[in-house]
Amino acid sequence: MRPLIAPSVLASDFANLQSEVEMLNKSQADWLHIDIMDGRFVPNISFGFPVMESIKKHAQKPMDVHLMIVEPELYIERFREAGAEVISVHIEACNHLHRTIQQIKATGAKAGVAVNPHTSVRLLEDIIADLDLVCLMSVNPGFGGQKFIENTYRKTETLKNLIIQHNSQALIEIDGGVNQQNAPKLVESGADVLVAGSFVFSAADPITTIADLKNLSK
């Protein structure tokens, strides 16, 4: 089974955002990955509701929203209203993770948990059955263009086994440094969704690059 491809809009040309989204509509991309950063949970600020709503006006693919923010529970409903169909919160940012997951599901969105490179996926054991998605950070969150962390392969295999053991339907998403070299091994390790930012938007032909990612990952 080929993975879902979710280009990260953070790496797009913001001066031509509409045309970038229309390009993704024409491509084999499955989701649009939207990174929301608040300058507190991560040392960077991206964009908020107005830009996300503008993307939604043109997007023909589901919006996969990754909240790299503190107190995400304060904004879940608002992100859903802005067009999010998948909402992932960081385990490191949630004091009451189960409650926040149920809050996401109550909006009708799919609920995900993102996990930083230093965080063990075993911490998800008591909640894995409730999740639709686990986003494994394969770089440190906050900035695009970072080098892929090799330990991600082992971590993906561990998470896949945890999902199977608990009869969970959660998809495994890999976010950071994904390219044509590591994509096949990531899928072999158990990944279901590949987030690609710089690799796609810096390519001479992003549409072909997205198609190649799917073909490389069979």
Description:
The chain is of the alpha/beta class and 218 residues long. The protein has one domain: TIM Barrel (Alpha-Beta Barrel), CATH 3.20.20. 33% of the residues lie in helices and 20% in strands. The chain is built from eight helices and eight strands; from the N terminus they run E-H-E-H-E-H-E-H-E-E-H-E-H-E-H-H. The protein has helices spanning 17-26, 49-58, 76-81, 97-106, 152-165, 183-189, 198-201, 206-216, and strands at residues 4-7, 32-37, 63-68, 84-90, 110-115, 133-137, 171-175, 193-196. Strand 4 (84-90), helix 4 (97-106) and strand 5 (110-115) form a beta-alpha-beta unit. The chain is globular.
Secondary-structure map:
Elements: E1 4-7, H1 17-26, E2 32-37, H2 49-58, E3 63-68, H3 76-81, E4 84-90, H4 97-106, E5 110-115, E6 133-137, H5 152-165, E7 171-175, H6 183-189, E8 193-196, H7 198-201, H8 206-216
Parallel strand pairs: 1-8, 2-3, 3-4, 4-5, 5-6, 6-7, 7-8
Active site: 35, 175
GO cellular component, one term: cytoplasm
Binding site for a divalent metal cation: 33, 35, 66, 175
Number of helices: 8
Count every beta strand, where a strand is a DSSP E run of 2 or more residues. Answer: 8
Multimeric status of the protein: single chain
Give the integer mean of the pLDDT values.
Answer: 95
Strand content: 15-25%
> Largest sheet, order of strands side by side?
1-8-7-6-5-4-3-2
Q: Give the full name of the CATH homologous superfamily.
A: Aldolase class I
The amount of helix comes to 25-40%
Instruction: Give the tally of structural domains.
Output: 1
Main sheet, how many strands, which sense, barrel? Answer: 8 strands, parallel
Instruction: Give the overall silhouette.
Output: globular
**Spatial gap, N to C terminus:** 6 Å
Structural class: alpha/beta
Stretches with pLDDT under 50, minimum 5 residues: none
What value does the Rg take, in angstroms? Answer: 16 Å
CATH class: Alpha Beta
CATH level-two architecture: Alpha-Beta Barrel
GO biological process, one term: pentose-phosphate shunt
Active site: 35, 175
GO molecular function, one term: metal ion binding
Binding site for substrate: 8, 66, 142-145, 175-177, 197-198
